[in-house]
Amino acid sequence: MNFIKYLSFKYKLNSNHRKSSAEALADKVAFFILIAIVTAIVYFIIKLFPQSIQDNMNQYAMGVFAFVYVISLSSAVKKYYKEYFLAPEREILLIAPIRNSQIILSRFFIVAFDVLVFGCIFLLPFVTANYFAGNIHFGIVLITIPQVLAVAIVSSFFAHTLFAFAYMFTRGKGLKTAAYTLVVIASVGVIAIIVFWQNYKSFFLVQDHLLKGIFHVLFKYPEYMLANQITGADIGIFSLVSIANMLILLFLAFSLTSFCYKKGLLSVSSRDLEKSFYISKLSAFLNKHVENAFLKKDILYLIRSPKLFSVYITPILFTSILEIRIQFASLGVFFSIFISVFIAIIVSITLNVLQTDDLNHKNLLFSIPFDIENLFKSRIILLFTLSTLVAGTFITFICLVESVRWEYLFFSLVQLLFMTYISSKVLVSRVIHKSNKNFSGYRYNGSLAGTIFYYMLAWNIPLLILFSFLSGFLMYAVEEGFTLSLYTGGILIVVCLLVLAMFYRSTRIHINQPKENHV
Hints:
Layout: H1 3-14, H2 21-48, H3 51-54, H4 57-85, H5 100-132, H6 138-170, H7 175-196, H8 209-214, H9 216-227, H10 232-262, H11 265-270, H12 279-289, H13 293-304, H14 307-326, H15 333-360, H16 362-367, H17 372-401, H18 406-437, H19 449-479, H20 486-507
Helix pairs in contact: 1-5, 2-5, 4-5, 4-6, 4-7, 4-9, 5-6, 5-10, 6-7, 6-9, 6-10, 7-14, 9-10, 12-13, 13-17, 14-15, 15-17, 15-18, 15-19, 17-18, 18-19, 18-20, 19-20
């Protein structure tokens, strides 16, 4: 099998369904139309800015370039992890008539292509729109095209080099854990750089000519961007040197990865690496102490899945940044609103992770009989427990760091327990109900948006309003020490009764089990 055929084979595996040539062509045309639409939107937005800002648009373009580069590095690391440790064909590669060189090159370019799409959607439209707005020289647009490609190649090179050294350092032992750690570090590191190192674009502005020559694809483009002018000869030289740099990086990544292949990287990454060195002990503990089969299945899936902790990184990190800047914990009623929104996010994310295993095995779950009521109860228990632990730990930490009074901390935890339980019960029941609605068995189709939207409108927003009222009462009682009048006391009782009524209503939610699924 030659390289082109194998690369085509890879893309068919990564697709959810087969596409005809007409559909494939339509996808390509749609992608270019998308870029054109984004360019047009950016153009009209730019024209709304005053001329003083438009005169400095090359500096803003420099910021977009730095942003794309930083995000691309993280995206490449995640894509590499997926290709080597989660790809559907990884076990077949051990016996398939495909040379290692073809596998290395195909995976290198698949990682690069994933990054290339990101650059084409963000950097290229921004620069092109600024050219049409009269803010950037046309030559900058021309060198942006090879630069976007260079960003993709550099990012893929970075990911391949990083994981190659990780493999050599671990010698293949605990490689899945080491690789997953790199993915987490890349995710956290990128967000931390963007948020805390606000002038991170200065990294690309070096004055050393030797560094500019060696790392041409990193440091030369920003120089032309800030100058906002370039000659035709410089465009040709820039493109040729960029191509030479990309070929060198490709050769280095290929050589390093090929060396790791000879040391067993392909065979190690192709095995069932979900069972890393700490999984067996946890599995033995669960088999001994957990009797519920569905609860056991979900927990085993979670501890073997790389999504378990990584899905919480971004919301917790961004929420922490908002808390540092705004300090919701000191704002009384706004902290109650903050808790309501945060809990909805954490519960939704956790549910999505739990349902992923059902999506991966939807045909199996549809064809075998099982007690769906048992699944319903175990899923609620696990969703409630995980969400409470994650959200509760985070909220408690915020309250302790900001020295929030114990009354507010206690109220926050009570609100947390109420809303986490209600959201778990409502979301799980609707997901299972929808998965059984049109079939004679349980088949989850991966759709959660409608369910979450319903919960937000019918449950989360009313609870948010009610707990905001209660938080306001508590704040005045603690800070002002006021005594309740008959009117105020009546309102407080009504609000408490409404909260309890919603809680009681959630406890009455059950699943109507179809006969086909009953054991």
